[in-house]
Amino acid sequence: MGFVRHVVCAMSGGVDSSVAALLLKRRGFNVTGVFMKNWDSLDEKGICTTEKDCEDAYRVCQILDIPFHQVSYVKEYWHEVFSNLLKEYEKGRTPNPDILCNKHIKFNHFHKYAIHTLGADAMATGHYARTSQEDEDVFQQTHIAPPTTLFRDRFEIRNPVRMYKGADLFKDQTFFLSQISQDALRQTMFPLSGLTKEFVKKIAAEAGLHHVLKKKESMGICFIGERHFENFILEYLEPKPGNFVSIEDGTVMGTHKGWFTLTLGQRARIGGQKNAWYVVDKDIATGDVFVAPATDHPALFRDTLRTDRFHWLTVDPPPELARTQMMECHFRFIHQMPLTPCTITLNMDGSVWISLSQAVRALTPGQFAVLYKGDECLGSGKMIQLGPSEYTLQKGRERLIAAAQHKEQPTPEPAS
Quick one: pLDDT at residue 2? Predict the structure, then answer.
């Protein structure tokens, strides 16, 4: 009999990671389940959901007869994810903690713990995603030091591991994995890559994992739980009251407790207003939050943006882009939003300009622009600059037309 490979599976206490561990065990791997504690808090009802999730993960490991460990990354999460999140909010941006948690915690600290501390040959998660390597290839990987230059030597021969959408396109989670490192990707298995959510639930039911089947799907930001976002964020940031200002005529419509409690595109809760108003822009210098009177107002739509230095999952940008500095692909900045065709331009500093085939609603600085080429997830970059809104362009055109008409008007003859 050949050598039995040791795989450490991240266990959340949910159905996906439970079935991932079950499938690995069935395939003959030596599996260890590990529960990560990343946040230390009670929800509004005084229930510590982390303890319940940990218990559920432990029960799954007992049923599967595999070793169970738990590890705490509360300190790392605070310094590398949550502190960053607060800084982003203060800058007027809206961060994505799920993408940052995968990058810094699961596919960095946890990956190193699995490989170096527990001596695993590979790690596994319950994400719906797949890679370009067969599972057997995962065990052949050796550590490759990252390049010290911006891009690696063009003559170096390399076969990076690529990431593709999972078979269940509705559940596909490549969006949330778009910032992870090539090193971690090389040593990761996604046992659910070819399965649909419905089939995963069926496997769990047949295996008697009923306690995880009954659980509600975890939605939203994990550490906020059931609490209202504004109340939560004001526990950590000082209120900075400002005005809601109409984008159309500059009228003050009401007041807010801080621009960081609001994000672009959301409905602004303004007292005394009969109709709904929506957040379209923020000025953190004055504290003004600009609002518009319709959910599809042109001030909410833009078709260009720039990212910070783009994170390519394969480390280097695609050869086509490196060669011509331009490439066509697809874009999304929200999980499950329809993919939008785009043209990207690579800048000298590694950032990219993204020009969309159609204007998209509520592009939001701080969120990640995730790019796809066919089924492949190329990586992501944080949106740091937006092009003008449709409303700004419309106003500009109106001014140009008015100026041109003014020029064309005949000047009156002086009276004799």
Answer: 47
| Known catalytic membership, residue 222 | yes
Average pLDDT over every residue of 291-307: 97
| Residue 405: alpha-carbon gap to chain centroid | 48
Edge-first strand listing for the sheet containing 122-124: 68-72, 30-37, 6-11, 122-124, 188-189
Closest CA to 11 of 51, 47, 56, 48: 56
Catalytic residue among 9, 54, 61, 222: 222
**Residue that is written with structure tokens 């550490």 in the block:** 223
Q: pLDDT grade, residue 106 (50/70/90)?
A: very high
Q: Please indicate whether residue 101 is annotated as part of the active site.
A: yes
Cβ neighbourhood burial of 190 (10 Å; 0-12, 13-18, 19+): buried
* Strand pairing category for 68-72 and 340-346: unpaired
Q: Measure the CA–CA gap between 138 and 185, rounded to whole angstroms.
A: 9
Q: CA 40, 236, 13 angle in degrees (round to 5)?
A: 25
CA distance 416 to 80: 79
Q: Find the mean pLDDT for residues 183-206.
A: 96
Q: Is the dihedral of CA 58, 64, 65, 66 positive or negative?
A: negative
Least Cα distance to 235 among 58, 89, 362, 123 occurs for 89
| Residue 39 backbone phi and psi in degrees, to 5 | -140, 145
CB 27 within 8 A of CB 5: no
Q: What is the pLDDT of residue 157?
A: 47
Written as six digits, the tokens of 277 are 């108003």
Catalytic site residue from 9, 54, 101, 377: 101
Cα 317 to Cα 344: distance, rounded to the nearest angstrom: 11
pLDDT in tens, 335-374: 999 999 999 999 999 999 999 999 999 999 999 999 999 9
Summarised one tens digit per residue, pLDDT across range 246-276 is 999 999 999 999 999 999 999 999 988 888 9
Q: Give the type of residue at 260.
A: F
User: Which pLDDT value is given to residue 145?
Assistant: 55
